[in-house]
Give the backbone structure.
Amino acid sequence: MGRNKKDVFKNQMKTVQNIADRIQALIDKHRNLNGKILKDGKVNMKLLGVLFRAVVDPNNPTLYEEGFHGKGGIKDGIRECDYKFCKTNPDWIEASRKHGLSFSSTTEHAVATIEFLGGFQKKGTKIECAYWIFEDSEWIPDGMEFIQDPKKDAHYLLAVVEPMLVSDLVSKLESIAIRMAVMNNLPLGAYKNA
Amino acid sequence: MLEFDEDERNAQVLGIHYAKKIDNKLAIEFMSSITSVSTSEQAEELTKAFWEMVDLSIEDNENDVSIEGISDLEFWMYKLFNDVSGCIEKRGFKKQWDETTRKVKSE
């Protein structure tokens, strides 16, 4: 088998550890497990406190740049694989609790995601960790909801639960990106020196 | 049992494709939703097989290879990563997934 990329950050373990430490510190500070995370089928964001997301440069935390979004389709920064585009009218996104941007709730899953996606990037591509704190506000745009992946507890999807125009989803994702922070002093380079 | 609904069919197609490519009977049956994970040995074998499959998909992705019309290998393999690791964990073999993953990565 060719080059082994499972050790994508082999020579950057200190940075990986620093990211893991930062993620865990944010969880310790903002998560409150004194209550049910799921209430009436809905995720209680205030209790969950904080979620994390891997961001591949030059994308922002919620929208993709064409050419840096993988190999599938993209429309106005939204990957066709992430949301369910209406087949008869691609200006619309259908409601689906099985589609949505991926977020991680644990240090382990957040780091594993960064490492996993890192393996697919071109050499030197920077990968960062973004996070969204819900401590003081459970605000999520209308028509959107976090859904816990029924197959993987630490994985959440930011889903569209009411049909909406693509342009509206772009605006909502932009407003979310503004509320998210990026650990941009801890960039990882994909299989740099590996 | 790892099961895929209609929206996840591409993940299963890739799972079966790469399991066949590494010629691992357990992985083929697991990805085909024929068999589940019942022992720690199976969990270790599947974890090791999965990372071999990921390696192959990364190479295909670099070479712009499509598998049965699926070009976005990064997205679908990440979905498969969550599905497979989640299934192994829910069957009670998280320790085997974690330890085998660590071992494979350090090789």
